[in-house]
Amino acid sequence: MTSFLQATLYGLLQGGLLGLIAVGFSLVWGVMNIVNLAHGAFVVLGAYVGWQVNDWIGLDPFLGMFVAAAVLFGLGYALQRWLINLVVNGPVFITLLLTFGLDLMIVQAMNIAFSADYRSIPTSYAGDSLHLGGIRVPLGRLLAFGVSVVVTLALVALVNRTRTGLSIMATGMDRAAARLMGIRARHVYALTFGIAAGLAGMAGTMIGTVGTFNPAAASGYTLLSFVIAVLGGLGNMYGALIGGLVIGLVEAWAGQYLPGTWINALAFLVLVVVLIVRPSGLVGRAYYAARLEV
Amino acid sequence: MACSLALAACGSKGEAPSGGSGTGDTLAIGASLSLTGALAREGKLTQEGYQLCQDKVNAQGGVPVGGKKLKLAIEYQDDTSKPDTAAQLVDQFNDKGVKLILASYGSANTEAQAAVIERNGQVMVDSAGADNKIFSKGYKRTFAVLSPATEYASSIVKSIAELAQPKPKSVVFLSADDGFSKTVTEGGMKTAQEQGFTVMSPQYFKSGTSDVSSSLIKVKGQRPDVIIGSVHLVEGIAIVKQAKELGVVPAGGFGETVAPPTPDFAKTLGAQAENVLGSSQWTPSTKGEDKYFGNAQQYTSDIRAKFGHDAEYHDAEASAACLALTLAAESAGSTSPDKVRDALAALDTASFFGKIKFDPTGQNVYKPMSVIQIQKGKAVTVWPKDAAEASFIWPGTAS
Q: B246 and A216 in contact by Cβ < 8 A?
């Protein structure tokens, strides 16, 4: 029983982190119909930014993540505004190819700048854990989980309560109508992409705090984000967090009752079953597919 | 798929050397390396090892082959850490007439290459492919300077059996699920049983994962005295980190094959890395010397002077592979692949890497592995006793 509870708790915490990794990917896909294959590279780049400011001035990663978010926001905004926007009206394969190219370039640039060595952002507390009866609550993961929940709630507030957020959703639902209402679609797209990259940067810093990273990890995070985004569903800001929690729990439970190497198979099985029962994901709204493009 | 094709195409644009094997005054050697992709770190160290070998041999005027001194000219190509690309590159070298090959990094790449080498009548010296599978297929043209995979965890088990006081009773293996790691685990479990340990059933996880929490939660209740990870660096770091998070503290300690000898291990884990045992193909206290590299200490200072970091065993095994090929060409008095092959099969030499002599399957089974322990942030040799730099600290988890 203790090990079941321990696995469940760990899976939930891990799931929160997975949700944070995927939330930006889901946002960009939902609003712009861009499957951003460079998302994992943004995550790892964020980890390097968090690591670098920690290395230079000893900044705690839970503050460093804001630096990572700012840097990645700027990069994401610029990339979307002056590069991806050029082809955003093209077929989805063009943006797929473009972001794939970006992924290769960013990963290789990190390889050159930081080498392929594994790194981790050192803190005095992230590896400690709280005792809760017989089970342990790892402190770093608990904090990362908290960040994930706060970020998701903030994102929900942003898109529902602010003019900027509403214009993001409006552009996602019907770009032509949004333009007629005076929304600058180019700016809104760049803003959305910037926010997504910034969130990826925060996620990266969290990964660097509780785990390890190197440039080669990027593609793994992209794939993971893809699975979580599809599972949770697009068009709902809670989608990524819920998708992440489901994957985290399934992996934790599978790890307890099946041979360890089956974990991934089971996670994908859950994805298949969910897609059969709910084709637009657990909490997704399929508005993008139904919208008119002029 | 598009990716691997595109990258393979990129990788093939390197300049061809002037002439093929043995023409002119150079000895052309082909080396496919994992310079990008998942194994980029180890690939780069392998390249350093090959490069230092070329520099050392050429500094002495080259390899004396049949009355002439030939300069080594190693041609590098990037296989992007993919076995199929590594195998294709060996084919491309063959098309250019390059018959003498130095292997890529890791068992998967080397295994893919070995099949092509055999078919093309080339000769390869393997620097980092330790999986016993490579040597169980009857290949006659692949020779490995390193100890076989079964020794990786076995050496740790033997060191614990010999030196640990109080002697632990139970051992559990946590293993990645790739071929190499599984072979390591099987070898380690067999040795542990022979040494009288209670061996619990092993836990496998996906190779390359950074989350091994499930396995740790499963073994926590069994209270093993020793946890041995048959892992690469990333899973090895995850075991130590997550064991702390989950409060898994074996009474004896941790052992983790190849992770601890890598400097990133202690750098990343800090104090948590203390006293973790690891196994290494080579350490700077290895006995033996040769005419190009001198002894192991000299080798260490040469790597530091040229590349600005301490020598890792990845550097050393690459240099040793290149050394074996060079010495074989010299004793064959020819660059013909058949003659070099026969010379390799007959090679019996001391070197900075220890003894190099191949058994009929092509493995260097005469070389022991060293066991290292992280002490005060540095990997020091603790076993075998005659090469030990420091005494064995046990239990490793006492602090």
A: no
Let me know whether B177 and B234 are in one domain: yes
Residues B127 and B26 in one domain: yes
Question: Per the domain annotation, does B184 fall within a domain?
Answer: yes
User: Per-residue DSSP letters for B286-326?
Assistant: ---EETTTEEHHHHHHHHHHHHSSPPPHHHHHHHHHHHHHH
The predicted-structure confidence for B203-261, as pLDDT tens digits, reads as follows: 999 988 889 999 999 999 899 999 999 999 999 999 999 999 999 999 999 999 999 99
B241 with B378, same domain: the answer is: yes
Is 80 exceeded by the pLDDT of residue B20?
no
Classify residue B397: in a domain, yes or no: no
pTM of the model: 0.85
B252 and B311 fall within a common domain: no
* Number of folded domains that form chain B: 2
Parallel/antiparallel/unpaired status of strands B226-230 and B348-349: unpaired
Q: Which residues 244-263 of B have a C-beta within 8 angstroms of A?
A: 244-247
Give strand pairing partners of B101.
B30, B124
Tell me the average pLDDT across B143-167.
93
Domain that holds residue B13: 2-147+284-357
**Please, which pLDDT band fits residue A287 given cuts at 50, 70 and 90?**
low
Least confident range of A75-89, B7-21, B199-213: B7-21
* Residues whose CB falls within 8 Å of the CB of residue A90, separated by 6 or more in sequence, listed in order: none
Nearest-angstrom CA–CA distance, B391 and B399: 17
Interface test with A, best of B246, B256, B269 (most A CBs within 10 A): B246
Domains of chain A: 2-290 (1.10.3470)
Q: 3-state DSSP call for residue B249?
A: coil
CA–CA distance from B346 to each of A18, B121, B351 (Å)? 55, 18, 15
Min Cα–Cα distance to chain A from B90, Å = 24
In a domain, B399, yes or no: no
Do residue B91 and residue B136 come from a single domain? yes
* Mean pLDDT value across residues B292-307: 95
**B107-121 per-position pLDDT tens digit:** 999 999 999 999 999
Note whether B245 and B315 are same-domain residues: no
Q: What is the CATH classification number for the domain harbouring B105?
A: 3.40.50.2300
Strand-pair partners of B175: B204, B230
ipTM, interface predicted TM-score of the complex: 0.88
Chain A: nearest CA to B251, how far in angstroms?
A: 18
Q: What confidence tier does B13 reach under pLDDT thresholds 50, 70, 90?
A: very low
Residue B364 lies in a domain: no
Query: Closest chain A residue to B221 measured between Cα atoms?
Result: A3
